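Worked Example 4.2. Consider the chain below.
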Amino acid sequence: MTFDSQKQRKIMGHFATGVTIVTTDGEAGSHGLTANAVASLSLDPPLVLVAVDKRAATLEYLVKNRCFAVNILRLDQEDLSRRFAAPGPKDFSDLTITTAVTGAPILAESLAFLDCRVYEILPGGDHNIFVGEIVAGEYQGGEPLLYFSGRYRRLGG
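Applying the procedure from the previous section yields the following structure tokens:
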């Protein structure tokens, strides 16, 4: 018996998550997407994972570029989350971007970032799981943007 996917969505919607924008650049060009299926995987070696829907345009860019940055969003960056969640090409031209080791775009004003090389790509149902080896990162401080029960939230709110 298959578990009802809508029930799964509703249940998992009650698991509060941080909000990130995963970005990439390289041979295939720049792209990005809003993601909350992100987790720390290992400290030795330093690994993080990002689950990406197989239908997402960013998937092809990640596969070809072999790198990504996980930009952890601040509370006041909900507009960026919505922007990168929308389908279609991603415009980075009005954003303050830096890079670290891999060349993946880092949103200069994010709460924190991890710069990663693709370590492994694993199948995960209707998603691919990108395991990234962390090669650089920084925490800048601030209050995180959260997502819970279908809405953006703040700590204590």
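The chain has a mean pLDDT of 95. The longest helix spans residues 5-12. Compare this with Example 4.1 before moving on.
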